[in-house]
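Regression test attached.
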Amino acid sequence: MQTPLGKIRGLGSAKEGVGHFWAQRVTAIALIPLLLYFLAGLISLRGADYGAFSDWIAAPLNAVALLALVIVGFYHMSLGLQVVIEDYIHNEGAKIVLLVLNKFWAAGAGLACVYAILKVGLFA
Amino acid sequence: MSKNDAPARARPLSPHLQIYRWPVTMLSSILHRGTGIALYSGTLFLTIWLLAAAVGPSFFDQVAAIYASPLGLVVTAGYSWALFYHLLNGVRHLNWDAGLGFEISQANASATLVLVGSFVLTGLLWAVVLFDLI
């Protein structure tokens, strides 16, 4: 049972809560085809120059697949590292700092990748 | 004497990890977490690579050259192995989530399959890339 106050204080187990568990599984399933598509694309682009690369990203299916890979992948990895941090860091202050940094990296780097993909795909 | 009397002093511990045989399932679990952490760390280089493409062709070529250097290739190959391992073991986890494969013999067999498969796929990928097989 969780009270509103307990929820705000972050009490109770934060490990593998149902939402976290489900999101981790759904993103994992999505990442399988997305990753395979990206690998196939990379293989087809081996030895290519910048022009071929930007042409590849400009193709709508490739751009959307790469965007999805980045967004879903960064979300999946932030969920995973969250569990790792909660497992190994016991100092409460350090744990909270790392958990926040984890989210910041996933969101920030994810946003940077999305920006780069859009810029290259739409304007290069 | 209560538990909270004095700060705990580190006691000597007899070696165990270096002595007893590692169950393959234990190795698999550790590797899944380890590869996950490695993959997370590597997103720094993925982000740099994509941002370099956004900056322009000449900067992108410089970054790509670094990634294609001998050290860069070793790191990328290692990253691809971690990716394949985490992917295959992730499927193994999803199987468990569906309620399948829980017998000890099945868990052991799938752990070995994942480990071997990760190296096979890595080898295949780099054979294709380096020797233009496809």
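Expected vs. actual: identical. Chain A has a mean pLDDT of 92.
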